[in-house]
C-alpha cells in the first residue's frame, strides 16, 4: 500500500472514531452497548494514529534513525522476541515486581504505624518528603554501588520511588471515614484495630488503589532509568541505551513498545481490581450506569 493510501486510511479511521464518539454523546445507549463503544473508540483511534504515522514517515521520507515507521518497528519486534523476552524478564519480572511489592508494602505498613503514633508522623513525614524529592539519576548510581549491578539495585530504586506515594495516599485515606461513622464505632466500644479493619481501611481503599496505579508506572520508569547506570548485558534500560549508541532506533522503539504494553496491562489490572474492591464507591456506580 502506498504512503498516500495509508495516510488517507488513517484520516478515514479518525473520522469514523469522531463520528462514533459524537453519536455516543447523543444517544441513550444501554450499559453494555456503551461500554463496547467506549472500548472501540480508543482502538480505532490507535489504528488511525498508526496509519498516519506510517503514511507520514514513508510519504515524507523521514530518516529511520529519527523516526522509523510502525511496520519497521513491528518487524523488529517479531524478529527479536528472545531478546525482548530476556530484557522484559530481567527488568519487569525481577526488578519491577520485587521493588513494587516491597515499596508499596513498606509504605502501607509505615502508614499504619504513623497513623497510630503522632511521634512517628512528626518524624517520618518530613524525611519522606525529602526522599521523594531526590532525583532518580542521583539515587540510581548509589544503589548500584550498594547492591551491585544486577536487578536488586534496580529493585532498590523502585522501592525508593514507590514508598512515599503509598505512604501519603494511605494516610490520606485513613482520614476519609466520616465523623458520624467513627462515633458509631465508638458507641459500639470498638477497639482501634476493629475500627481500622471494619471502617477506616475500607474507606481508604480508593486512595490505596490510587497509589498502586501511580506506582505501577513509576516502578517501570525507575527500573529502566536505573539500568542506564550499570547493569548486566540484559535489561530494557540497558538495551535502549546500547541500541541508541548503535543508531538502531527500531530496536529502541521495540523496547518502548514492550514497556508500554507492560505498564498499560499493569495499570488496567489494578483498575479492574479497584472496581471489584470499591464497588460501593460513587465513581464505580456512575461507571456502571
UniProtKB/TrEMBL annotation:
One of its GO terms (cellular component) is plasma membrane. Keywords: Cell membrane, Membrane, Transmembrane, Transmembrane helix, Transport. Residues 105-277 form the ABC transmembrane type-1 domain. It is found in: Cell membrane. It is a multi-pass membrane protein. InterPro entries: MetI-like (IPR000515), MetI-like_sf (IPR035906). GO terms for biological process: transmembrane transport. The chain crosses the membrane at residues 6-24, 36-53, 92-114, 126-149, 155-178, 218-240, 252-273. PANTHER family: ABC TRANSPORTER PERMEASE PROTEIN HI_0355-RELATED (PTHR30151:SF20), ALKANE SULFONATE ABC TRANSPORTER-RELATED, MEMBRANE SUBUNIT (PTHR30151). This is ABC transporter permease. It comes from Notoacmeibacter marinus. The lineage of its organism: Bacteria, Pseudomonadati, Pseudomonadota, Alphaproteobacteria, Hyphomicrobiales.
Amino acid at each position: 500500500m502506498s504512503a498516500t493510501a495509508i495516510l488517507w486510511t488513517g484520516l478515514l479511521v479518525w473520522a469514523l472514531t469522531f463520528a462514533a464518539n459524537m453519536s455516543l454523546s447523543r444517544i441513550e445507549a444501554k450499559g453494555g452497548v456503551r461500554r463496547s463503544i467506549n472500548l472501540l473508540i480508543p482502538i480505532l483511534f490507535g489504528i488511525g494514529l498508526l496509519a498516519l504515522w506510517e503514511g507520514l514517515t514513508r510519504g515524507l521520507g523521514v530518516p529511520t534513525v529519527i523516526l522509523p515507521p510502525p511496520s519497521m518497528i513491528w518487524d523488529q519486534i517479531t524478529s527479536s522476541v528472545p531478546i525482548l523476552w530476556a530484557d522484559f524478564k530481567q527488568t519487569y519480572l525481577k526488578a519491577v515486581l520485587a521493588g513494587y511489592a516491597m515499596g508499596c508494602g513498606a509504605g502501607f505498613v509505615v502508614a499504619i504505624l504513623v497513623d497510630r503514633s503522632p511521634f512517628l508522623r512528626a518524624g517520618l513525614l518530613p524525611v519522606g518528603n525529602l526522599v521523594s524529592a531526590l532525583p532518580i539519576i542521583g539515587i540510581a548510581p548509589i544503589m548500584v554501588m550498594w547492591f551491585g549491578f544486577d536487578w536488586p539495585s534496580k529493585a532498590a530504586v523502585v522501592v525508593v520511588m514507590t514508598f512515599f506515594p503509598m505512604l501519603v495516599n494511605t494516610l490520606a485515606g485513613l482520614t476519609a471515614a466520616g465523623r458520624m461513622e467513627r462515633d458509631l464505632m465508638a458507641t459500639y466500644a470498638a477497639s482501634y484495630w476493629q475500627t481500622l479493619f471494619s471502617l477506616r481501611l475500607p474507606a481508604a481503599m480508593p486512595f490505596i488503589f490510587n497509589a498502586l496505579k501511580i506506582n505501577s508506572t513509576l516502578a517501570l520508569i525507575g527500573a529502566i532509568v536505573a539500568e542506564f547506570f550499570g547493569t548486566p548485558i540484559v535489561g530494557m534500560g540497558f538495551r535502549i541505551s546500547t541500541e541508541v549508541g548503535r543508531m538502531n532506533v527500531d530496536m529502541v522503539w521495540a523496547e518502548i513498545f514492550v514497556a508500554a504494553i507492560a505498564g498499560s496491562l499493569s495499570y488496567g489490572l489494578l483498575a479492574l481490581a479497584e472496581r471489584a474492591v470499591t464497588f460501593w464507591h460513587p465513581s464505580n456506580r456512575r461507571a456502571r450506569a
